[in-house]
Write a structure and sequence with these properties.
This protein has about 70 residues and is mainly alpha-helical. It has helices at about 5, 10-35, 40-70. The two termini are about 20 Å apart. Keywords: Membrane, Transmembrane, Transmembrane helix.
Length: about 70
Protein backbone atom coordinates (compact mmCIF):
# COMPACT_ATOMS: atom_id res chain seq x y z
CA UNK A 1 0.00 0.00 0.00
CA UNK A 2 1.27 3.48 -0.86
CA UNK A 3 1.15 6.19 1.81
CA UNK A 4 -1.60 4.64 3.97
CA UNK A 5 -1.14 7.25 6.70
CA UNK A 6 -1.86 10.06 4.22
CA UNK A 7 -4.93 8.35 2.78
CA UNK A 8 -6.30 7.57 6.21
CA UNK A 9 -9.49 5.54 6.08
CA UNK A 10 -9.51 5.07 2.30
CA UNK A 11 -7.57 1.81 2.09
CA UNK A 12 -9.31 0.56 -1.07
CA UNK A 13 -8.00 3.57 -2.99
CA UNK A 14 -4.50 2.98 -1.65
CA UNK A 15 -4.60 -0.67 -2.72
CA UNK A 16 -5.83 0.21 -6.21
CA UNK A 17 -3.08 2.83 -6.62
CA UNK A 18 -0.46 0.31 -5.51
CA UNK A 19 -1.79 -2.33 -7.92
CA UNK A 20 -1.83 0.20 -10.75
CA UNK A 21 1.79 1.14 -10.00
CA UNK A 22 2.83 -2.53 -10.11
CA UNK A 23 1.01 -3.12 -13.42
CA UNK A 24 2.58 -0.03 -15.02
CA UNK A 25 6.02 -1.08 -13.76
CA UNK A 26 5.64 -4.61 -15.12
CA UNK A 27 4.42 -3.40 -18.53
CA UNK A 28 7.25 -0.89 -18.75
CA UNK A 29 9.77 -3.59 -17.91
CA UNK A 30 8.42 -5.81 -20.72
CA UNK A 31 8.34 -2.95 -23.25
CA UNK A 32 11.81 -1.82 -22.21
CA UNK A 33 13.12 -5.35 -22.61
CA UNK A 34 11.68 -5.61 -26.12
CA UNK A 35 12.84 -2.19 -27.30
CA UNK A 36 16.23 -2.06 -25.60
CA UNK A 37 17.12 -5.74 -25.32
CA UNK A 38 20.12 -5.31 -27.58
CA UNK A 39 21.26 -2.22 -25.67
CA UNK A 40 21.42 -3.98 -22.33
CA UNK A 41 20.04 -3.35 -18.87
CA UNK A 42 20.51 0.45 -18.95
CA UNK A 43 17.76 0.94 -21.52
CA UNK A 44 15.32 -1.16 -19.52
CA UNK A 45 16.03 0.80 -16.36
CA UNK A 46 15.64 4.09 -18.25
CA UNK A 47 12.12 3.15 -19.37
CA UNK A 48 11.18 1.74 -15.96
CA UNK A 49 12.55 4.79 -14.17
CA UNK A 50 10.72 7.25 -16.40
CA UNK A 51 7.36 5.49 -16.08
CA UNK A 52 7.83 5.03 -12.32
CA UNK A 53 8.46 8.77 -11.90
CA UNK A 54 5.34 9.59 -13.95
CA UNK A 55 3.29 7.17 -11.84
CA UNK A 56 4.69 8.60 -8.61
CA UNK A 57 3.83 12.13 -9.74
CA UNK A 58 0.24 11.08 -10.55
CA UNK A 59 -0.04 9.35 -7.16
CA UNK A 60 1.19 12.44 -5.30
CA UNK A 61 -1.24 14.68 -7.20
CA UNK A 62 -4.13 12.34 -6.35
CA UNK A 63 -3.14 12.42 -2.67
CA UNK A 64 -3.05 16.22 -2.64
CA UNK A 65 -6.48 16.41 -4.29
CA UNK A 66 -7.87 13.88 -1.80
CA UNK A 67 -6.43 15.78 1.19
CA UNK A 68 -7.71 19.09 -0.20
CA UNK A 69 -11.23 17.65 -0.60
CA UNK A 70 -11.25 16.39 3.01
Amino acid sequence: MLFPEMLGKDRAAADSVAKLALVIWAISLIIGGILFGSKGFAGVMLIVGALTMIDLLITILRLFWRIKDN
